[in-house]
Specification:
By secondary structure, the protein is of the alpha/beta class. It has 13 helices and ten strands. Bound molecules: 4'-deoxy-4'-aminopyridoxal-5'-phosphate. The site of 4'-deoxy-4'-aminopyridoxal-5'-phosphate has 19 residues, from α3 and α7.
Length: 340
Amino acid sequence: MRNARRAIDLIGQTDLLRVNSLSELTGCEILIKLESQNPGGSIKDRAALQMITDAMARGELRPGMTVVEGTAGNTGIGLAIVARGFGLDMLAVMPNDQSPEKERMIALHGAQLKTVNPVPFRDENHFYHTARRLAESRADYWWANQFENTSNLRAHYLHTGPEIWQQTDGNIDILVSVAGTGGTIAGNSMFLKEQNPEIQVWLTDPNGSGIFSYLKTGEYIADGSSMTEGIGIMRLVENFKQARIDAAVNLPDQDLISMSRHVREHDGIVLGSSSALNLAGALQAAALHGPGKTIVTFACDLGERSASKLYNPDYLRSRGLSDQAEPVTELLARYYQAGD
Ligand code: PMP
């Protein structure tokens, strides 16, 4: 419990929940850090706060100015909240294939929203280039640039990593994380490996993501086929570059669907897609390294934000996916085999 005077003072210091069903099944301690508890409902509030406070400290960003950012949605929501806290406005540029729930949240927070068609990064109408051009068009606009701005990873190096270290009393063997900008995995891996270089860091990546193929082959082979949002970028960016990663796993969307149903049923948590993927990665880490290991991962956001996709059988069917969950015992058996 905390008493605060500003919403932004409630960013961070999130709880760590033991996922009992998976811990009992694997003989590992599988812990999930509830980043959904941040005021904007996602892990990206942390990056938003750090990017804005660092830019204000440098004098680049002053009250009355407008923060501009290209976003899959969660960073836009976080920035909208933090911008308000400092007397700034917010303009989010978002591809129009992201969940309508996130679009609505940005608008509800009073930010301006510009949606663009989803196009490949090389196209100048990509949301990233659109945000940059808009920011350059006016002197009172400031571009947050979460991909290249390393205040993003600093948020995790300064806060999330130390919180995990404290909450586990230093008893952590494996950190499992998805990556979008890479801020989460970079900042946390840097901090945790400084405390104990033995800690293993696992990247979990969705099917069709460029990062996984880059780490394995040095080439970006990507088809963007995953239903996940905000993760699995197709290029190497500054935040991701600094991540200290020991293993990368690539899991199909069907596995995260199964995992989301399992923890809803057994643990009472309704996760967003990237968080369900994180837990599937944690299960695979438990299969390959367990039992007896402590594995920490993140609930980056909750399923209410992906109700129209992950929890919508019609949507899943339209993508050739099934609403039927594979039992987690079978998922685990497959993951054991992956290690053979
Ligand atoms: N999960 C969700 C739901 C996200 O929105 C994002 C960021 N877009 C991530 C994970 C990835 O976090 P990061 O940018 O720190 O890699």
